[in-house]
Amino acid sequence: MTDIPTQAFHDGNAIPKFGLGLWQVPKDTCADVVRDAIGMGYRLIDGAAMYKNEEELGEGIRASEVSRDDLFITSKVWNDGMSYDDVRKSVDDSLNRTGLEKLDLMLLHWPFPQQDTYVTAWKALIDAQADGQMTSIGVSNFHKDHLDRIIGETGVKPVLNQVEVNPRLQQSKLAQVNDARDIVTQSWSPLGSARSFDAAPIKAIADRTGKSPAQVILRWHIDIGNVVISRSGNPDHLRANMDIFDFNLTDDDLTAIAALDTGERTGPDPDTFNGLD
């Protein structure tokens, strides 16, 4: 079984550097996917209220043969509940739906700057953490001004910022912003909808290492210092996605992949996205 390394947080806790994301995993298969992934060695499972499969996430955890203490479970607060009371209720609801007593990490899913309540929402997560409802707190899709505002107004830094990262949207400047604040960068949509699978550097590395383009890209996330979550409901793909810890990319590989960055998103822009329209 693959021994997945961990990434330390500034709060003294740590997260597995690779895990399973549950965005768009259907409700009717989610519990089995979670159970099977845990059986294969996955320990980080990334969920969210908006994914509409938190109940099944909990079922998969309970169906596995791995102790809850050995798992790292994330959820997220959705944009339709960003007031203080709504965030506290969202945390309660996620715990109730999953059947867990405590989450390892809770994130604000988007800043939703047009509503301008993300500082209040962050204060609610701080209090929920103080009340023991989760071990660590972080954010998702936050830019520099969003991060600096919540830190400046509360004095509490997120442990992690989960953002879209793939070879065509590398977010190196945002990663530097995170690093300067001791915030871990976590990649979502790490394969970028397979848009870079046929890129010459990816194909060359795959040919040299005997790995697939997907494995090369997932390894790239690890080698640039990010935590990464991938998604699949296919058992063969789940195993293959995790098989990335027996090789490394060279400095020349990293330079070649860096040239693939076009700044093109597969998801929405955090400065304008509200998720409710």
Topology:
Elements: E1 6-8, E2 14-16, E3 18-21, H1 27-40, E4 44-46, H2 54-63, E5 72-77, H3 84-98, E6 103-108, H4 118-130, E7 134-140, H5 144-154, E8 160-164, H6 172-180, E9 184-188, H7 200-209, H8 213-223, E10 227-230, H9 235-242, H10 251-258
Parallel strand pairs: 3-4, 3-10, 4-5, 5-6, 6-7, 7-8, 8-9, 9-10
Antiparallel strand pairs: 1-2
Helix pairs in contact: 1-2, 2-3, 3-4, 4-5, 7-8
Structural summary, described in words:
- Keywords: NADP, Oxidoreductase.
- There is one protein chain.
- This protein is of the alpha/beta class and 277 residues long.
- It has a single domain (6-193, 224-232), classed as NADP-dependent oxidoreductase domain (TIM Barrel, Alpha-Beta Barrel).
- Helix content is 39%, strand content 17%.
- It has helices spanning 27-40, 54-63, 84-98, 118-130, 144-154, 172-180, 200-209, 213-223, 235-242, 251-258, and strands at residues 6-8, 14-16, 18-21, 44-46, 72-77, 103-108, 134-140, 160-164, 184-188, 227-230.
- The model has no long low-confidence stretch (mean pLDDT 97).
The fold-level CATH name is TIM Barrel
Shape: globular
CATH architecture: Alpha-Beta Barrel
Main β-sheet description? 8 strands, parallel, barrel
CATH H-level superfamily title: NADP-dependent oxidoreductase domain
Low-confidence stretches: none
CATH class: Alpha Beta
Number of domains: 1
* Global structural class: alpha/beta
DSSP, total strands: 10
Number of helical stretches of at least 4 residues:
10
Residues in helices, as a percent range: 25-40%
**Approximately how much beta-strand content do the residues carry?**
15-25%
Order of helical and strand elements? EEEHEHEHEHEHEHEHHEHH
Overall pLDDT: 97
Give, in spatial order, the strands making up the sheet with the most strands. 3-4-5-6-7-8-9-10
Q: In whole angstroms, how far apart are the ends?
A: 44 Å
Radius of gyration over all CA atoms, rounded: 18 Å
